[in-house]
Amino acid sequence: MSMKTQLLNKIADRSAVAGVVGLGYVGLPLALEFARAGFKVIGFDVSKRVVEQLNNGVSHIQDVSSADLAEVVKKGLFVATDDPSRIKEMDAVSIAVPTPLVKTRDPDMSYVVAATETIVKHARPGMLVVLESTTYPGTTRELMQPKLEAAGLTIGKDVFLAFSPERVDPGNPTWHTKNTPKVVGGISPACTEVATALYASCLDTIVPVKSPETAELVKLLENTFRSVNIGLVNEMAIVCDKLGVDVWEVIDAAATKPFGFMKFTPGPGIGGHCIPLDPHYLAWKMRTLNYKTRFIDLASEINSDMPRVVVDKVAAALNRAKKSVNGSKVLVLGVAYKKNIDDMRESPALDVMRLLEELGAHVDYHDPFVPSFTEDGHAFTGVALTDDVLKNSDAVVIVTDHDTVDYQRVVDLAQVVIDARNATKGLKATQGKVVPLSTTRELVGA
Ligand SMILES: NC(=O)c1ccc[n+]([C@@H]2O[C@H](COP(=O)([O-])OP(=O)(O)OC[C@H]3O[C@@H](n4cnc5c(N)ncnc54)[C@H](O)[C@@H]3O)[C@@H](O)[C@H]2O)c1
Fold first, then answer.
1. Which of 18, 76, 290, 436 allows an S-S link to 39, with CB 3.0 to 4.6 Å?
2. Dist CA 17 CA 197 (whole Å)
3. Measured from the CA of 278, which atom of ligand 1 is nearest?
4. Pocket lining for ligand 1, CB < 6 angstroms
5. Per-residue pLDDT tens over the stretch 59-84
6. pLDDT digits 0-9 by tens, 117-160
7. Cα separation, 352 vs 335, whole angstroms
């Protein structure tokens, strides 16, 4: 019987051991789906702390409850390990390690290379390897395939290699790992078939595509699409400010068009592990082919300038009160990169805080999801949102609009509120108390 048939049979009767390498925001929810589908799951991570915590049934990922994790640990369906030799027990290995950028905005492939090399050391015939980490087109074929082949394994015959992008949206109550369609592209038709069979056993919808390059590019198109459209509405916010028009009203009214328009909202900039980084993987790859991706560069330029736009609004608001930024107390409200989650990676709040501090402001922050964090070796601890903190701050800047904050109370008590998220929409406020991203000119006779 061929390796492919053996593996397909093991997937069908759930005797296959599903492996996940990298147990973070992407890997842990995926591991749980495999376990729920009846597979025995081994999760490998280089972090001893993460491994110990998970084996004790404690989840470090907001979207995975400790109760759900503890249940699969107790049933013996999930075990975490930092012992790489256990990779040889895995029939399928899904890789979800970080793909950050280096300082020059080129891809940092060190985690994918390290994970691949570890897997290759323990690879054996009859294994499926799937890369899930977001990356540039060509990674699976050019970087991973040669390493597996150098170990004497023939792709499509002995081992099966594919790319399948993860689309998890942390904090999204509707769309999660199980019900979000999953794109799969293998090196050969046999690779696509085996990878499709694995994911179809635990996820609702699988979308097979012709090649790993297609699947790699699908993810980059999705996130470039978001980056470019956010860049467009951020520029529209600047345009509206200069015209004295309310950008939120423009967007909401445009969104009443039942076709041909998709709503994106402006803000203080973009954050997270995906949208600020992923498009640069494509830009980098295209630079190697002597092509400049202009939309990506332009969107990145506009989006990364938004913290400065917000800080200019703070300076102007303080100026109207005859105060300078230098020496003023500024409270940043919300520091996670988006609402209702605790993820600080690439958060625009970090830039807002840094720019304010550079101008001499005394900056405090409050975030119900982020009690403390460390950035560049500097430790920050949040303050409680007391009446005194709100009253005594010269300005309050809403950078992230978590739902649990009472914004009417913020507006009532604060001296001035700079609202980069439209969190104060529809609230009662005295004239000039709330400064939106685009300031509406007062209408004659209004
Ligand atoms: N976070 C998201 O919302 C999201 C969504 C879609 C895709 N992605 C992509 O998925 C990938 C993983 O992102 P994440 O957010 O889950 O990262 P993460 O930092 O939350 O988790 C990565 C895990 O990998 C572990 N790790 C690092 N090197 C390792 C190695 N050599 N072997 C084993 N484990 C290793 C780390 O210890 C960590 O626990 C990235 O490419 C990211 O772009 C992320």
1. 18
2. 14
3. 43
4. 21-27, 44-47, 50, 96-99, 111, 114-115, 118, 132-134, 166-168, 170, 273-274
5. 999 889 999 999 999 999 999 999 99
6. 999 999 999 999 999 999 999 999 999 999 999 999 999 999 99
7. 9
